[in-house]
Amino acid sequence: MVKHPPNDTGDHTPAGSVRLPTARRESIAITLEDLRGRRIYIESYGCTYNHADTRRLEAILEGLGCRLTGPDEAETVIVNTCTVIEATERKMLRRLAAFADRDLYVTGCMPLVQMEKIHAVCTPQIIHQDEIHKRSGGVGSPGAGSIGVVQVASGCVGHCSYCITRLARGRLKSASANEILDAVRQLAASGACEIQLTGQDVAAWGLDRGEFLPDLLQEIADIPGRFAVRLGMMNPASVLRILEPLVDAYESDKVFRFLHLPVQSGSDSVLERMQRGYSAADVVKIVDAFRERYPDMMISSDFITGFPGETDDEFQQTLELLRRAAFVKVNITRYSRRPGTPAAVLKNLPERIRKVRSRALLIEANIIYDRYNERWIGRETPIVATEKHATSSTVCRNPCYLNVVVAEDLPFGFSGRAMITANRRHYVIGTLVPSGAGHRV
Question: Whole-structure pTM over 0.85, yes or no?
Answer without folding.
Answer: yes
